Automatic annotation (TrEMBL):
Keywords assigned by UniProt, alphabetized: Magnesium, Metal-binding
GO molecular function list: metal ion binding; prenyltransferase activity
Source organism of this protein record: Gigaspora margarita
Protein name per the record: Geranylgeranyl pyrophosphate synthase
Key word Isomerase present: no
GO BP annotations, alphabetical order: isoprenoid biosynthetic process
Length: 184
């Protein structure tokens, strides 16, 4: 038990920091419509918070922090298996595989000083961040900024950005606008 406490020290440190727990609050808000049982909602909130904690490498060192992060991935997976829902397991592992593939390619590109092609960059970014995550998070990525400043339909793109939408159709429309403006 004491060993587990030591392993989780970087993670527990991050949990002790004052924060907004925005993701958990968002889950609670969605539950207004979903009406999930409280125990399942609580478990989902814990898993989401586990996976989105910041890195504590400056305090605990890189090796201990990486090990802790990997350990927390498996703790979250363990919580997901309690739902007895194969689709949740598949989604979780698929997202983590994409995340690590994209991050691995970014690290390779950076460390080997290999400049990726535009298509490779878009694939790396999509894998590590998710499809059009900049739109969902209302972030001004280079492609969005370029499209807004140089192209037409910039009001439409701004309106899409303001929506924090997860809609695939809306994101595809935003991509269409950016391609028309030669921003992608």
């Amino acid at each position: 038990m004491i060993l587990t406490k030591i392993l989780l020290e970087p993670y527990n440190y991050l949990l002790s920091l004052p924060g907004q727990k925005t993701r958990s609050k968002l889950i609670e808000a969605f539950n207004h419509w979903l009406n999930a049982p409280k125990d399942k909602l609580f478990a989902i909130a814990i898993v989401v918070e586990m996976l989105h904690a910041a890195i504590a490498h400056t305090i605990f060192g890189v090796p201990a922090t990486i090990n802790c992060a990997n350990y927390v991935y498996f703790l979250a997976l363990h919580e997901i298996t309690k739902f007895d829902n194969p689709e949740m397991h598949y989604i979780y592992t698929s997202k983590l595989l994409n995340l690590h593939h994209g991050q691995g390619m970014e690290l390779y590109s950076r460390d080997s000083m290999t400049c990726p092609s535009e298509d490779e960059y878009i694939n790396m970014h999509t894998d590590s961040k998710g499809f059009c995550e900049d739109l969902t998070e209302e972030k001004f990525s280079f492609s969005i900024m370029h499209s807004i400043h140089t192209g037409h339909n910039n009001n439409r793109l701004m309106n899409i950005l303001k929506q924090y939408s997860n809609s695939i159709e809306l994101k595809q429309y935003a991509v269409k606008i950016m391609k028309e403006n030669a921003s992608l």
